[in-house]
Q: What sequence folds into this?
């Protein structure tokens, strides 16, 4: 679903739960003919759909606002160079997606391999465009490490873009900023 130019996706498991809840309300109404099942069930189903859409929309909107500043401060790093001591630092990691998990809950975790090692990349919502196993991607985000487990760090991603698309955007930005006028003398 696209809201004001921002793509928002509901997790499949949430949709299944809303359909299950709506079916239970409809069957209860059919069995007892009590209008309260409809009067309570319809608003609750609406809230179960609207609240996650609103949360995903605001998160994506904030990520789009944050991206230029984060990209300006980010450094290109290899996966093995990302350590828990870098917590909060903006990084860009390029690599190939080896494994994807958490899609059913709407919070995907990608395992990125860049030749030097592997690193986990987590995101609050599905990226735009959707990427899968085998895709070469550029990840922009901040390093996150839990205080209880100081041996592992992961990247909290703001954007996950296929490398060809990321390179095209960088080229467009460079073309807009670098306009060189050459005078020809005969």
A:
């Amino acid at each position: 679903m696209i809201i004001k130019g921002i793509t928002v996706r509901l997790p499949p498991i949430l949709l299944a739960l809303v359909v299950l809840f709506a079916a239970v309300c409809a069957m209860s109404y059919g069995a007892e003919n009590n209008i309260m099942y409809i009067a309570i069930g319809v608003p609750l189903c609406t809230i179960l759909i609207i609240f996650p859409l609103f949360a995903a929309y605001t998160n994506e909107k904030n990520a789009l606002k944050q991206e230029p500043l984060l990209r300006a401060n980010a450094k290109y790093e290899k996966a093995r160079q990302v350590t828990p001591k870098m917590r909060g630092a903006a990084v860009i990691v390029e690599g190939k997606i080896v494994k994807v998990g958490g899609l059913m809950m709407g919070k995907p975790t990608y395992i990125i391999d860049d030749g030097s090692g592997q690193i986990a990349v987590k995101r609050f919502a599905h990226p735009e465009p959707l990427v899968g196993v085998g895709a070469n991607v550029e990840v922009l985000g901040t390093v996150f490490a839990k205080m209880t487990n100081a041996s592992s760090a992961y990247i909290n991603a703001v954007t996950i873009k296929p490398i060809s698309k990321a390179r095209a955007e960088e080229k467009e930005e460079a073309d807009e900023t670098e306009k060189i006028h050459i005078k020809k003398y005969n």
